[in-house]
Amino acid sequence: MIKILDKYLIVNFLRPFFYSLIAFTGIMLVTNVFETIDALISSQVSLTYSCQYFLLKIPQIITLILPISILLATLFSLSKLSYQNEITAMKANGLNIYRIFTPILILAFFLSILSFFWNETMVVKANQIVNFIKQTQIKKIDVSQDEAYHISLYLSGGRFLRSSYLNKNKGLMEDIHLLDYTPQNFLKVRLDAKYAKWNGKNWISGQGVKRRFNSSGEIVSAYQFKEEILPLTKSPDDILEIIFFEKKEPEEISFFSLLRYITILRKCGSKVTNYLVEFHMKVSFPMINFMMVLIGAPLALFTTLKGRSIAEFGISIFIGFIYWGTMAIGRSLGRSEMLSPFLSAWLANLIFGFLGIYLLVKVKK
Known about the structure:
Blueprint: H1 2-42, H2 47-55, H3 58-83, H4 86-92, H5 97-138, E1 147-155, E2 159-167, E3 172-181, E4 187-198, E5 203-213, E6 219-229, H6 236-246, H7 255-268, H8 273-284, H9 288-305, H10 312-335, H11 341-364
Antiparallel strand pairs: 1-2, 2-3, 3-4, 4-5, 5-6
């Protein structure tokens, strides 16, 4: 009996869920086509690339639409059962309200886990190709990852590196400026070199000048050199990885790739606050799907018990905007270091989680 009831509740949930997911995805895809079509035409992007561009937008759209679809399905399915007095019949047969919600809550938790892996595989790969098409076909930018121009890189120990050019295949950097600062932010040593070559372990700079400064900024010593080992152990691959990671959107970077990048930046002594916020967002965002049911399930019955009609669509959109707004505020607070990266990423989930628990207690009473 219980298994039949669970199946009945899940089927009643899945039907509006898939309808809304397909409908919202279609609407957002059409909107995206109208927003982008002029740029594709003016850039003379081929039909093949254009179709690929829009089709590969779908995984990201599904990720964004999934929470709203889950909330709408929760409100619609449970309010319908309540209106038809089926919830009352279940309670009359000894089921409490929490037991009635359990199948949908478990399904939502499963969808949250599925969403995480969906984002890590389909969404990341699709967004990488979308961005590649945008850069190469629309903006006509060379995105070769074998070389880079105008490099600026913070290193460990208060050092800062500038270079006009880096070629990975040649193991070559040109026009190098390495600045070494004290903890009080005074320039201590400056090394300028025409070039540097990677020998597999170190960068060997050539044809340069090394200057030392006192705390007043005056040169205390200077000498020219033909060869000098740079205090830089990062390989050309490591440097290019840092540079190109900085140009990527969070949606193009997987959870584990972002973790590896944060590790590299920490070794360089670079600031990682923004990346830590995005790292925690990778886990917190999929949990929105579970929170939507935690809020939507009691809300559906609470409004019905109070004798009000439920505008499911309006409620879903409204809660969705509030949720995304709260998440955006949390992200900003994290990046400005007003909250820890973990707390800023989970702020919306914590607020709406407590709200959902409060509504669950109220609806049982």
